[in-house]
Amino acid sequence: MIQENSVDVLVIGAGISGLTAAREILKCDAKLKVTVLEADGRVGGRMLTEPLPCANGKTEVFDLGAGYVSKSQTHIMDLVNEFGLQVYPQYTKGKKIMQLGKANDPKVYQTEIPPLSIPALVESELMRRKVESLIKKVPIEDPYSVENAEKKDCNSIASQTKHWMFTKDAYNTFDAAFRAVFGADSSRISYLFALAFCNSCGGGMRLFQANEFGAQEYKIKGGTQQICELLADQIGRENVLLNHFVSCIKQSKESVEVRTKDGKVFSSRYLIVTIPPHRIPFLQFDPPLPEVRRIMYENIPAGNLTKFVATYETPFWREKGFSGEVVSDGGKSPLPGCDRGPVSITYDGTTTTGSPALLGFIGSREAIQWNEKTDEERKHAVLGALANFFGDEALNPTAYREYSWDKNPYIQGGPVNIVPPGMMKDYPTIRKPFGRVFFAGADTATYWVGYMSGGVQSGQRAAAEVLHNIKGDSFPRERLLGTVYGPMKYDKKIPLDGTQPSIWDYGLVADIFGMRSLE
Fold it and tell me: Does the annotation flag 17 for ligand binding?
């Protein structure tokens, strides 16, 4: 056993939450000693940027993890602007594709109105309005404060959606969208959690949008992982220790002792844990976590997600008038052992210098089943799906790369953690301190839960909580807003303008049914 020097604050996890927390503490007081312990051999967490061969012999970098930011995500945008990084809009010009059911025939549409029957369109819009109204009433800080919270919690997204929707296409559309966001079947997710999750983002529709204020509004030139690299530089690389897998946490009234898998021991006055919630039960706590909290962590798994990028010599989909956007429930599976084809959603991934690329996701049950296939089988199926959408040119990429977050030993899933039906009553404890141990991470956020912006916000919150304990009354009280030491609920820094377009905005269905008066 090797004893390391004692510090003021230890942070477990060098993703954006942990690095933000460490930097916030040092910004407040550069004399404090802060050390970040990271199990992996790199910084970034779920932010991973890697180089790929591109057209004309060039090499460009692409995000294989978190890849989008938005003006509505003010916490991450503050960092982007501070570091002088360039953002560029997601390409959305042209025809879009929707594929529902096990038929392989994709449906093409030009406007924001999906290619559904009139009854399905009407039902979808009425569902959207009802859900958006409920979302505003379910605060992520205290979901059980809403009326009939237990009933909402006991229902899954799937059961509630089926209760309200009768047309199959409308239901399949909502189901495909939610699977893409959470990386999990809607039958596995608490309806109350979904409402609270959407509340943290300023609304439900914005999760699925690539327009202004939508979750897929911008990409970052040079990739997202560079944000973590820049944060690590500011903290000091000597204070960010890679390949340090923490296994035990022991705390007393005066200090916290942390032990790594290879026997190194670190001590500190306070500790911030930023690893994904479902990984926390693998840490040995002394004294142990409260039973209610341990059970909660054990029952909020991560979704299942694989992200892929294919680069090409030409943007053939653009030349054919397509935007590159696809929403699919997978269609018919090309191989036995998989219920559907692999692809859930795709976007145009072309870089700022014009190197053509398509990116997409394999999510939910499909991610699990297709991970059982060989790399070559999975690649062949993905490229086959892209060819079905955009033409045979998709079968011959310049390069193809995929990353399964399920297979990352330190993260084991993505893009977010989900809460199953019946588990939301204790959910707010996810961000509650335990003695001298504090908790951050995108899944503990109250703004944009599960997103990079939520990671930044939660890191700032945990840092403020620790600094309050270190500094006492000298720490500014206004910085305790949104922490356990101040009002947890406060005005969210989320712009609300221009974020909820509906099919009525385009006039088609409203004119047919004479329902403009509903506005």
Answer: yes
Write the CATH number for 274: 3.50.50.60
pTM: 0.92
Last-in-domain residue among 397, 415, 433: 415
What's the mean per-residue pLDDT of the chain? 91
Q: Which of 211, 172, 182 is nearest to 325 (CA)?
A: 211
Question: How far is residue 162's CA from residue 297's CA, in Å, rounded to a whole number?
Answer: 29
* 291 marked ligand binding residue: no
Instruction: Write the single-letter amino acid at 186.
Output: S
Q: Measured between alpha carbons, how far is 448 from 6 in angstroms, rounded to an integer?
A: 34
Count the Cβ atoms, other than its own, within 10 Å of residue 240: 23
Q: Containing domain of residue 243, as a range?
A: 2-45+223-300+421-480
pLDDT of residue 504: 34
Helices (H) and strands (E) in the chain, counts: 14, 19
**Structure confidence by residue, pLDDT tens digits, 391-402:** 999 999 999 999
* Cα Dmax for the chain: 76
Closest C-alpha among 230, 233, 203 to residue 215: 203
Whether residue 190 is annotated as binding a ligand: the answer is: no
Query: Does residue 501 have a cis bond before it (omega within 30 degrees)?
Result: no
In this structure, how many other beta carbons lie within 10 angstroms of the beta carbon of residue 8? 16
Tens-place pLDDT, residues 189-221: 999 999 999 999 999 888 888 888 889 999 999
Q: CA–CA separation, 8 vs 18, rounded Å?
A: 15
Closest residue by Cα to residue 136 from 126, 125, 147, 120: 147
Do 238 and 169 lie in one domain? The reply is no
Q: How far apart are CA 428 and CA 141, in angstroms?
A: 6
Residue 263, in any domain of the structure = yes
> Cβ atoms within 10 A of the Cβ of 470, count?
16
The answer to whether 427 and 294 are in contact (CB under 8 A) is: no
Helix (H, G, I), strand (E, B) or coil at 500: coil
Q: How many domains does the chain have?
A: 2
Residue 93 is encoded by which pair of tokens? 């010009």
Please name which of 85, 88, 178, 72 lies closest in space to residue 451, comparing C-alpha atoms. Answer: 72
